[in-house]
Automatic annotation (TrEMBL):
<dbReference type="Pfam" id="PF13765">
    <property type="entry name" value="PRY"/>
</dbReference>
<dbReference type="InterPro" id="IPR006574">
    <property type="entry name" value="PRY"/>
</dbReference>
<feature type="domain" description="B30.2/SPRY">
    <location>
        <begin position="40"/>
        <end position="238"/>
    </location>
</feature>
<dbReference type="GO" id="GO:0005737">
    <property type="term" value="C:cytoplasm"/>
</dbReference>
<keyword id="KW-0863">Zinc-finger</keyword>
<dbReference type="InterPro" id="IPR003879">
    <property type="entry name" value="Butyrophylin_SPRY"/>
</dbReference>
<keyword id="KW-0862">Zinc</keyword>
<dbReference type="InterPro" id="IPR051051">
    <property type="entry name" value="E3_ubiq-ligase_TRIM/RNF"/>
</dbReference>
<protein>
    <recommendedName>
        <fullName>B30.2/SPRY domain-containing protein</fullName>
    </recommendedName>
</protein>
<dbReference type="InterPro" id="IPR003877">
    <property type="entry name" value="SPRY_dom"/>
</dbReference>
<dbReference type="Pfam" id="PF00622">
    <property type="entry name" value="SPRY"/>
</dbReference>
<dbReference type="InterPro" id="IPR013320">
    <property type="entry name" value="ConA-like_dom_sf"/>
</dbReference>
<keyword id="KW-0479">Metal-binding</keyword>
<dbReference type="GO" id="GO:0008270">
    <property type="term" value="F:zinc ion binding"/>
</dbReference>
<dbReference type="InterPro" id="IPR043136">
    <property type="entry name" value="B30.2/SPRY_sf"/>
</dbReference>
<dbReference type="InterPro" id="IPR001870">
    <property type="entry name" value="B30.2/SPRY"/>
</dbReference>
Amino acid sequence: MDDFSRHRSGCIIIHGHRQSKASRSCNWSSLPLDVTLDHQHLRPNQMRRWAHLRSPFGHNLPSPYARTHSHLSFSEDSKTMTRMETAQPYPDSPERFADWGQVLCKEGLSARCYWEVEWTGEWTGIGVAYKGISRKAKGNDSVLGYNDQSWSLRYHQGKYNAWYNKNDAAITVPYFNSKRTGVFLDWSAGTLSFYAISSNTMTHLHTFHTQFSEPVYPGFRLGFEDSSLTLCPFLAGLSSDS
């Protein structure tokens, strides 16, 4: 059963959780194992600590062609998706979303991973889903966050909401012009955290608490035409001195 309340402490506690197979190659002795957001915003020294955390956990998401809605078009490098007015000539696929401008990445995650996306437009959704999320359900049942198979952060008209199983939590943060979102998944701990990223601040938006029963797939929703979303790459060897 999900605890849908907001993560009030503003902390991510890495210390003490069981290491997953995928994360055992990390140099744990050099990690800041307790990354604390003392306030809603990270100060510059905290940003450097977070940059250090991003290095082992930063995840370059694979391109998601097979599970994309027909009105989503991709750049040549497959890292940027755009909502189009007309349908694209994709072949039929049972994994393709039928009614909503959504897509899932090909790779399921079951470790500690961090990724960032940049986006434009309204009704943008960012989250994760189980592989079995419905692609063809009528109404809102296949929308990210509108079922018990997915968790999502949604942006609309300057406001964020966190959604799970058709329940939402309004997120109150000071207004700032940020269209870059960071996502931190700690699969074994059952947490999924979202952050608004700008040039000198990192604002915690929401943390879901649950018990994941299978790998989750990063998913995205573009609600309107000409809106876009880009998967941000990570540079190997990023350090706290960067």
